[in-house]
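Need a sequence for this fold. Nothing fancy.
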């Protein structure tokens, strides 16, 4: 696996692997922090890229609310996507955003009462709850057809895209002060089928949550045991 480091100026290298005629792919990517720890919930967008298969109109996405958290915490959607915000908690939530890309408010509600919200402008939308200040979520709205979010192991695999349709790569994570961008013309042949990219920050240390300490687990124990 080849490792690439990033700094304030952005990505220092990359891989371009040509596929069949009229198509190109990037290798499997793994994103890590400065300590080599895998970075989940990182967004990678191949700006301007078009899929090699016909692409339909933007559909619907779901950002749920479970145990006083947005699930997923980080979502990526195409511009024009309608997002539903079901409330799976036993308490009401009041979802809002003041972000320039989308300002909206869903006043106190439970279950599936809230109407979907259309995200029609690209950019980062930060979500909050007017009742629970600790709740934070992020919707990254893109114009590109090729994008992904890293999993728990920091991995992202992107589908093939039309060769020549993309012009740059954008990387973003909630712990980054700003997104990073580089031109695809700056990418150099690094070899191999996978690529490890080191992002310019260190993940905060977290202590594992004791088993059964989540709000939903506590409620379930109360219902089962009456205590």
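Here you go.
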């Amino acid at each position: 696996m080849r490792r690439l480091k990033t700094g304030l100026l952005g990505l220092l290298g990359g891989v371009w692997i040509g596929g069949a005629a009229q198509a190109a792919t990037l290798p499997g990517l793994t994103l890590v922090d400065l300590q080599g720890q895998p970075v989940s919930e990182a967004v990678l967008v191949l700006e301007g890229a078009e899929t090699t298969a016909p692409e339909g109109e933007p559909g619907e996405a779901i950002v749920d609310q479970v145990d006083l958290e947005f699930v997923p915490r980080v979502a990526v959607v195409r511009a024009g996507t309608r997002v539903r915000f079901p409330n799976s908690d036993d308490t009401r939530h009041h979802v809002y955003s003041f972000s320039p890309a989308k300002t909206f408010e869903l006043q106190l509600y439970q279950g599936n009462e809230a109407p979907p919200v259309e995200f029609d402008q690209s950019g980062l939308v930060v979500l909050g709850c007017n009742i629970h200040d600790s709740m934070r979520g992020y919707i990254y709205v893109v114009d590109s057809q090729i994008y992904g979010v890293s999993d728990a192991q920091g991995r992202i695999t992107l589908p093939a895209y039309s060769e020549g349709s993309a012009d740059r790569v954008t990387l973003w994570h909630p712990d980054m002060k700003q997104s990073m961008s580089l031109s695809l013309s700056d990418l150099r042949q690094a070899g191999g089928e996978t690529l490890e990219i080191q992002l310019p920050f260190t993940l905060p240390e977290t202590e594992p949550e004791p088993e059964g300490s989540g709000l939903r687990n506590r409620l379930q124990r109360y219902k089962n045991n009456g205590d």
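For context: The chain has two domains: 2-41+151-198, 60-141.
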